Amino acid sequence: MRTDIFHLVYFDYDRSCYFHFYNCNFRCLGCLRKISLWDCHLKEDEIKKCKFKGFLNLKELENVVQKLKIEFNLRKAVLGGGEPTTDKNLLKVISLLKNFDLEITLLTNGFSFPQGFEKFEDVKVTISIKSIDPQKHIFYTGYPVFPILENIKNLAKNGFEVLVETIYIPGFNEVEGILRIEDFIFSIDEKIPLIVDSFLPVPGTLWPKPSLEELEKLESELVRRNIKNVYLRGKTIRSGVKGEVRLIFPQ
C-alpha cells in the first residue's frame, strides 16, 4: 500500500527522522519547495545527489523505521512535507510508527484532518498560520483561514498537544499580525506555544528576509505585554542545525 512519503532525513541531535510527504493542498507563495524539493538541512553536495525514486509503501516504510530504530535508537518521527494530511494512508502511517513506540509530531497547515485522526490524541500537532487576516491568508495560500482556526480550537478541546507556527514576513505578516495570532491563541489556551520563523525569500516573491532589528522589535513588544509563550525561532536559530544530518531516502 503506497504512501506519499518520498524523502527521509535523520537528525542525530534529538534522534528524530523527518518524513517528507510529497503532495500539498495549499499553493503558498513562499513555499520552500520553490528553492528545492529536498530537505534544506542537508549539505549542498548531498542535495545535488538526490534523485526522485518514487514513494515508499507501508512495508518499505516499516523496514526503514526498523533499521533506524536498531542503528540509531530512533526516538521521534516528524511528519511534514508537503502536507501529510493529503495522504489517504496517513492514519496507517501513524499506526505503523506508534508500533515502534515513537514520539510523533504532525506538521500541518491544519486545514483538514482525516476521519479517525481524533483517536491519536498522543500525536503532537503543529499548525502553521501564514496570516490571521482572511484576505491575506487566501492571497498567500489559496485557502481560507477560518477552518484552520476552528481545527485548532477543536484539537485543543479534545486534549491534543497543539503548537502554532507563523512566519515573520516583512510587509505582509509583521508585529501587528503576529500579535493578533497570539491573541487568538490566548482565547483558547495561553499555554499553547507560538513559534515565529523568519521568511526566506523564494523565486517569484518580493518580500525580504526580516532583519534582526525587526525581530527584536517584535521581541520588545512581547516583553512589554509580558507574553512568554512565543519562541522567535527566526532570531535564535542562525548558526544552522545541531549535530549530524543524514540522508536516509532516497539513496
Q: Report the CATH architecture.
A: Alpha-Beta Barrel
CATH homologous superfamily name? Aldolase class I
The coarse silhouette is globular
What's the CATH class label?
A: Alpha Beta
Tell me the strand percentage band: 15-25%
Record the strand order, biggest sheet: 8-7-6-5-4-3-2-1-9
Q: How many discrete domains?
A: 1
Q: Roughly how many Å is the radius of gyration?
A: 18 Å
Q: Can you tell me the CATH topology? A: TIM Barrel
Average of per-residue pLDDT values: 95
Elements, N to C (H/E): EEHHEHEEHHEHEHEHE
Total number of strands = 9
Oligomeric state of the chains present here = single chain
Report the helical percentage. Answer: 25-40%
Question: Your description of this structure?
Answer:
With 251 residues, the chain is an alpha/beta fold. The protein has a single domain (5-249), classed as Alpha-Beta Barrel (TIM Barrel). Helix content is 32%, strand content 19%. It contains 8 helices and 9 strands. A 9-stranded mixed β-sheet has the order 8-7-6-5-4-3-2-1-9. Strand 3, helix 3 (90-98) and strand 4 form a beta-alpha-beta unit. The protein is globular, with a radius of gyration of 18 Å.
In short:
The chain has 251 residues and is of the alpha/beta class.
